[in-house]
Amino acid sequence: MNTAFDARAFAPILHHELPFPILFASISGAHLYGFPSPDSDVDLRACHILPIASFLRLDEPRLIADRTWWIDGVEVDLVSHDLKKYVTLLLRQNGNYLEQLFAPLVVVDSDWAAELRALMSNGGIARHVYHAYAGYANSK
Predict the structure, then answer these.
(1) d(Cα 23, Cα 101) in Å, to the nearest integer?
(2) DSSP letters for 56-92
(3) Is the pLDDT of residue 132 over 90?
(4) What is the tally of structural domains in the chain?
């Protein structure tokens, strides 16, 4: 598998591996940052929606789905959070989840993800996260 690829080519695989409605999925890690090597894995990060029935039981549902598999000799690593968990992490000012939501390497997108991006763009991005990324941008 070439390190330059069409991110959306992972969508059918992702839908097969993650049996829930997917709000969005993007590629993170070395590919997102622009320095993949021939042996870099592909980091898929996603947000899914668990069925309501998952929450109507005594056991707490598993809010994180993670899977690893190989395609043409390349390791693919998927981590997906249920919407409840994902929004909780966003509200805790975790920049990793902003990166996933706004990543340009889009695998799956939806109107709900666009709405979440709009909410975050219109005041939902906390100063803490802004200052952290501004610091990265200004460092030499």
Answers:
(1) 10
(2) SSSSPP--EEEEEEEETTEEEEEEEEEHHHHHHHHHT
(3) no
(4) 1
